[in-house]
Design brief:
Blueprint (H helix, E strand, L loop, with lengths): L4 H18 L11 E9 L6 E8 L2 E6 L4 E9 L9 E8 L2 E8 L11 E9 L3 E9 L2 E7 L2 E7 L2 E7 L1 E8 L2 E4 L3 E9 L2 E5 L6 E7 L2 E5 L5 E9 L2 E4 L4 E6 L2 E6 L5 E8 L2 E5 L1
Parallel strand pairs: 2-6, 2-8, 3-7, 3-9, 8-10, 9-11, 10-12, 11-13, 12-14, 13-15, 14-16, 15-17, 16-22, 17-23, 18-22, 19-23
Antiparallel strand pairs: 1-4, 4-7, 5-6, 18-21, 20-21
Length: 276
């Protein structure tokens, strides 16, 4: 998942315009356009890890007791001129890695309406969900096996009950994580972070440029904590900080037996740290 910051900013601007254009498909405005629903079953023989590459549309991944992958697809265009036949789901294999990727081969036009594809993916719990890369749309993951890395340009990220370490990055959107075995780096450019942290994976940073951070930390967590807000308050409740120092905008100290460094930082927003 190597993206340049320039591409992320471009996707963010284009994504915001796309979200606005697609918003006319919901709410009180009658839907005028095209909609197509489909379902695919994908075998997993020889696959040990799954990656998802989604362009425009929401992505939901759920772990279940099953042997194959079930994908529900909802294709939609806000324009009657949108060609849904040019939007498809590609299944790619490289070694033991299986990738599901949305591919649009038609002409893209904001005024003409770029088609979207919402994906609901049900996977075997034994299959590791390694990576989800989304450009425009919300990402939801629940009940899967990691380690998992999520990268979203425009949209909220919600991750629950992952067996493994979770890392997440969002350009514009909130990030919520709970029930993960461990939490690695989590970052948002514009968005709030709401994290329940049982353990961290080495030196770890929770950062947002514009947004609040609410982190509930396990009492068994061992780390050297450093929390700071440039424009906002930092509060700590229910946590014992050995050799700690606190000001209105910062807090530091030792959690448990210490060890790896946990940095919690926002430029504009509040930081609230609590004991789980």
């Amino acid at each position: 998942m190597e993206r340049t910051s320039t591409r992320r900013r471009l996707l963010g601007g284009v994504g915001a315009a796309l979200v606005t254009a697609l918003a006319g498909c919901t709410g009180a405005t009658p839907f005028v356009g095209k909609r197509l629903e489909d379902d695919r079953t994908i075998p997993t023989e020889g696959a040990a890890a799954l990656a998802v590459d989604a362009r425009v549309g929401d992505v939901t991944v759920r772990g279940e007791e099953r042997d194959d992958i079930d994908v529900e697809m909802v294709k939609q265009s806000s324009s009657v001129g949108g060609d849904l036949s040019k939007l498809d789901l590609a299944v790619e294999r490289e070694g033991d890695r299986l990738t599901l990727a949305t591919r649009y081969t038609g002409e893209s036009s904001l005024l003409g309406g770029t088609p979207s594809m919402d994906l609901t993916i049900r996977v075997p719990r034994s299959l590791r969900v390694a990576e989800i890369d989304a450009s425009v749309g919300d990402v939801r993951v629940e009940g899967v096996t990691g380690d998992l890395a999520v990268d979203s340009s425009v949209g909220d990220v919600t991750i629950r009950n992952v067996e493994g370490t979770v890392t997440a990055e969002a350009s514009t959107g909130d990030v919520r994580i709970e029930g993960a075995s461990a939490v690695g780096d989590v970052r948002a450019d514009v968005g709030d972070l709401d994290l329940a942290v049982s353990a961290i994976d080495g030196d770890t940073a929770f950062r947002t440029s514009t947004g609040d951070i609410d982190a509930a930390l396990s009492p068994d967590l061992d780390a050297e904590l450093a929390a700071e807000s440039r424009v906002g308050d930092v509060t700590v409740e229910g946590l014992s900080l050995g050799d700690g120092t606190r000001t209105e905008s910062s807090a530091s100290g030792t959690l448990g037996d210490g060890g790896s460094t946990l940095r919690v930082e926002t430029r504009t927003g509040d930081v609230h740290l609590s004991g789980r």
